[in-house]
Specification:
The complex is a heterodimer of chains A (108) and B (116). Chain A contains no helices and 10 strands. Chain A is mostly beta strands. In chain A, the strands form 2 sheets. In chain A, strands 2, 4, 5, 6, 8, 9 and 10 form a 7-stranded mixed β-sheet that branches. Chain B is mostly beta strands and 116 residues long. Chain B is 0% helix and 55% strand. Chain B has strands at 3-7, 10-12, 18-25, 33-39, 45-51, 58-60, 68-73, 78-83, 92-100, 102-106, 110-114. The radius of gyration of chain B is 13 Å and the shape is globular. The relative contact order of chain B is 0.32. The chains are: A mainly beta (108), B mainly beta (116). The A-B interface holds A 33-35, 37, 39, 44-47, 50-51, 54, 56, 86, 88, 90, 92, 95-102 and B 35, 44-47, 50, 59-62, 95, 99, 101-109.
Chain lengths: 108, 116
């Protein structure tokens, strides 16, 4: 099983700042199968980034993904209050598919 | 517009059974693989099961293997999760998820509570 580790568990930043959310895999993940999701309270997760670096439909260009192998990063430039959410990385290249435990992003 | 609507959740006693359904619209269901993902109250996301477009391939998380069965009816645009021998730790919101560009569309979820 590929374990995805997201640290820190909580990140607190101010509007306009840049957020860098890392995701480390216990073994190599094919970039085509690494995705990032945003989940706000009471809502279903929403796909932000697929294939490690491609933005999903309707996602602002403030959101970007990068990385390969075992190290991936979600970057949110110019934070806005509505970016307050939990962010999960996910791999679907090898069964069992797995999610990171999530990083909660707080906007001060 | 892509839509996924789950149903069938509810309160069930430990050891009981439940069948979840997901009815989809807005895309050609028969051409997509599908998944179930769950989220226990206050916890993170856990992938549960996968089925390919033609039902020939299925995968399960170890935590549900042998107890849950995923299936689909392509003419009815429906995905199912048959859950047996339910345990307290199966309590969660269960999401139906399309497997397109990674997990690209999610339903709103249906809550399953396993309790006596």
């Amino acid at each position: 099983e590929i374990v995805l580790t997201q640290s820190p568990g909580t990140l607190s930043l101010s509007p306009g700042e840049r957020a860098t959310l890392p995701c480390r895999a216990s073994q190599s993940v094919s970039s085509g199968y690494l995705a990032w999701y945003q989940q706000k309270p009471g809502q279903a997760p929403r796909l932000l980034i697929y294939g490690a670096s491609s933005r999903a439909t309707g996602i602002p260009d403030r959101f970007s993904g990068s990385g390969s192998g075992t190290d991936f990063t979600l970057t949110i430039s110019r934070l806005e209050p509505e970016d307050c959410a939990v962010y999960y990385c996910h791999q679907s290249g090898n069964s069992p598919y797995t999610f990171g435990q999530g990083t909660k992003l707080e906007i001060k | 517009e892509v839509q996924l609507l789950e149903s069938g959740g509810g309160l069930v006693q430990p050891g009981g059974s439940l069948r979840l359904s997901c009815t989809v619209s807005g895309f050609i269901f028969s051409t997509y693989s599908m998944n179930w993902v769950r989220q226990a109250p206050g916890k993170g996301l856990e992938w549960v099961s996968y089925i390919n477009s033609g039902s020939g391939t299925t995968y399960y998380a170890d935590s549900v293997k042998g107890r849950f069965t995923i299936s689909r009816d392509n003419p009815k645009n429906s995905l199912y999760l048959h859950m047996n021998s339910l345990r307290a730790e199966d309590t969660a919101v269960y999401y139906c998820v399309r497997d397109g560009l990674n997990f690209d569309y999610w339903g709103q979820g249906t809550l399953v509570t396993v309790s006596s």
